[in-house]
Amino acid sequence: MELTGAEIAIRCLQEEGVEYVFGYPGGAVLFIYDALFNQEKVKHILVRHEQAAVHAADGYSRSTDKVGVVLVTSGPGVTNAVTGIATAYMDSIPMVVISGQVPSTYIGEDAFQEVDAVGITRPCVKHNFLVKDAKDIASTLKKAFYLAKSGRPGPVLVDIPKDISNQKAEYSYPATVNIRSYHPEKQGDVTSIKRAAQLLIEAKRPMIYAGGGVVLSEGSKQLTDLVHLLGAPCTNTLMGLGGYPASDKQFVGMLGMHGTYEANMGMQNCDVLLAVGARFDDRVIGNVEHFTSVPRKIIHIDIDPASISKRVQVDVSIVGDVANVLGDLLAVLHSSKQKPDAATSATWWKQIEEWRSRNSLKYRNSDEVIKPQYVIEKLYEITHGEAFVTSDVGQHQMFAAQYYNFDKPRRWINSGGLGTMGFGLPAAMGVQLAHPGAPVACVTGEGSIQMNIQELSTCKQFGLPIKVIALNNRYLGMVRQWQEFFHGNRYSESYMDALPDFVKLAEAYGHVGILVEKPSDVEGALREAFARKDELVFMDFRTDPTENVFPMVPGGKGLSEVILAEDL
Amino acid sequence: MRHIISLLMENEAGALSRVAGLFSARGYNIESLTVAPTEDETLSRMTIVTRGSDPIIEQIKKQLNKLIEVVTVVDLTDGEHIERELMLVKVRAQGEVREELKRMADIFRGRIIDVSDKTYTIELTGTGSKLDNFLLSIDRNLILETVRTGSSGIGRGDRILKL
Question: What ipTM is given for this predicted complex?
Answer without folding.
Answer: 0.92
